[in-house]
Amino acid sequence: MPSNGPPLAAASNSGSKRQLHSQSSSHGSHSSNRAHHGSTLKVSEFKHAQGVERLEQVQQVYGSGRGKPSALEERVARLEKENKLLRLRIEPIGEDARRAAETAARNIRSGVDDAKAKTLEAWHLDAWIRSFSFDAVVASALVKHLHQQSHSKASGLRERDYMANLHSLGSEQTILALLRDANVLEEIAMELWRGTATLSQQMDKRQAVEAAAEPPPPDAFELNTKYIDAGAHALAFGSLAMFYSGLSGLVGAPSSRPAEGMRAEHCAAADADALFSVSNYGTRTTSRVEWHFVARADAGREECRAHLGRLGIADGAHYPKEERLISDPSFKEHVRQPMPPSAFRSLGWDAVDEKLRAVGVAPLSEAEFIAARLYTGPCYRKYNAVLRSRGDVAALEKEWTSLCHGNLYTTTLHLIDSAITKLGKIKTVDTLYRAPGGALPSLFLSRNEFNVSGGVELAFMSCTNSREVALDYAVTSKAAVLFQIQQEGFVDRGADLSWLSQYPHEREITFPPLTSLEVTGKQVEGTVLVVNLAPRRHDAPTMRDASKSSKSSVCSVM
């Protein structure tokens, strides 16, 4: 057979091969030991030295005086060249990283406004890092060999015993070797790098919104501003004293004739015909018109024809329309439709009543139904303005005076509260989300004298079960805060109003006024501060109980 090198005696060739194998093995073992015990050689230098020594060994066996190199010589020469290039690539990385870090530190923007400062101070690098699942990466690397032996995922007890055995059989070098074998550091670096990309994108999006001369077009989530609060002033919370006083402590006792009382609050009060608007859907309407829309549906248009005319609707042809919905073809299907309460019997009301009876709760009355449906439309703005004005923020009291002309909507608020209290008893427990929009007050960022943090939401609190859309809005909100609300237990649950809502696509889950929100934890996701909250409902009576209390109070006065 042709040979690439000069003919050698068989014995000499065999001996040389054994010598090459012995030298190579000895060198590899020696080098591995040096690397294992913390050799100061860089990876590139080590591979380069290895390649040179192997080339010298090959030359000793085959000779270096011939013209054409052997295949093995070519391979080793190629390895030597690759390692030279590798050394050129690796050595500048440390210096480049240092320069990048210094440049990043110099490019930090300053001048965060006071309204956001306290909330943004809650963003810490360690909290951001905790948002990654590095514990799972490390755990997977450590138990890799255990799972390979058992050919399936081992139980927690086996994993515990395995880790204890590692301590008795090795040293910290064993752990280090397992982590290196699974490239854990590389995985962590890659996850962090992806995280910085998300962080950068979110900051760019926020800056683009802040710099825009006009607000961006609304998306499906922003259209429902009951899920959000625009402006730091909206993040005003009540005290524990208000929580214990109940709704009657805020707005007084309801009428002993709930249906008539609610109608009077919408059709005979000082603000009954005062025009107001809601920014989410662009609807301009009045309290009187809204009551007829919900309680009387199409039959009500004739009764309030003159009032519709003042809204620019000739001959009362239709109820006020949502300008921001009808202007966009993709949202036209969300335009509300007038439907009499009786029509909902076959659309879920009867089924809801059956569930309520099954848990020992009285069915929903028609007055409670009308009040709850009113809340899902434009009137929510008035109701929440009343409740938030009961706090100590002057701007909120001024807004209520301007919007409601002194009307407290007392009976209506009690009816909504009663409906939510009932419906909450049949709500499935899940996690809900709300984007507050403004800066958090200090009581959410630090513990009080009772070693708890949180506050009491004075108004109705509408939430969504879509984390994705809530987080997307929070990214561009004024202080980048997301409430993550975990419902717990049999009592502290919101009510699903989607089946009776004017806008069922919103899938609205609502908590009653005076819900206490206790902070159970905080974490960072990108630029957003996620506040974990446990809701606690006040001991709300149903409307029947409230009416009895009202009658009792009247009798005692007489």
TrEMBL record:
Name of the top EC class for this enzyme: transferase
Pfam families assigned to the protein according to its UniProt record, in alphabetical order: ART (PF01129)
Name under which the protein is recorded: NAD(P)(+)--arginine ADP-ribosyltransferase
This enzyme's EC code(s): 2.4.2.31
Organism: Prymnesium parvum
Family: Belongs to the Arg-specific ADP-ribosyltransferase family.
GO molecular function: NAD+-protein-arginine ADP-ribosyltransferase activity; nucleotidyltransferase activity
Disordered: annotated segments: 1-41
Catalytic activity: L-arginyl-[protein] + NAD(+) = N(omega)-(ADP-D-ribosyl)-L-arginyl-[protein] + nicotinamide + H(+)
Lineage top rank: taxon: Eukaryota
UniProt cross-references to InterPro entries, sorted A to Z: ART
The keyword Lyase is annotated on this UniProt entry: no
UniProt keyword list: Glycosyltransferase, NAD, NADP, Nucleotidyltransferase, Transferase
